[in-house]
Amino acid sequence: MGSTLRVLAGASVALVLSLAGAPSASAQAAADSAAMPADTSNYALARRFLEVSGTAEMALYSIREGIAMQREMNPEMPKEFWEELSKRIDKEVGTLVERFVPVYAAEFDPATLEALTTFMASPTGQRLARAQPRLNTAILQIASEWGMALGMAIAEDLEAWMTESEKATIP
């Protein structure tokens, strides 16, 4: 694989994985707190919550959606790359979820993790867990459309504010 394809592959994988759990400001704060020593007895509770809440399945769903999108955007990438990426992700998703454990263990106390796990184990919680990947996809689509419309409106406003000489300098 040439250097250009390596860069594309790395960028594509990073983007796909970010779609599975793109760190928001609150997630980054939790990750920062997870870097500090956490109560490791909380790790078992966090693992159980992640298991019951279907986190691995949700991550796989989001990653697969991202792979499909990236395949379309990067037709120069060989299909073997995408096939191998999918195989490895399926095989390694447990290691991704394990990286979430310290974040949840640091963010929630044992009582909260137990309550969350109890809820997620209930029929209502399981219904939420099954619906979450589809909800996330719909929400990302809505946010993408909203962001594009907002960006276009800002671009139109900027163009209206610019003088003719400023417009001439834009390629």
Number of helices: 8
Distance between the termini: 33 Å
Order of helices and strands: HHHHHHHH
What is the percentage of strand-forming residues?
under 5%
Mind telling me the C-alpha Rg? 21 Å
Largest sheet: none
Q: Which residues form runs of ≥5 with pLDDT under 50? A: 22-27
Q: What's the average pLDDT? A: 81
Identify the quaternary structure here: single chain
The total strand number stands at: 0
Share in helix: over 70%
Q: What structural category characterises the helix and strand content?
A: mainly alpha
Shape: extended
Q: Any overview of this molecule?
A:
- The chain has 171 residues and is mainly α.
- It has 8 helices and no strands.
- The protein has helices spanning 3-21, 25-35, 41-52, 55-73, 79-107, 110-121, 123-161, 164-168.
- The longest helix has 39 residues, at 123-161.
- The two termini are 33 Å apart.
- Mean pLDDT is 81; it is low at 22-27.
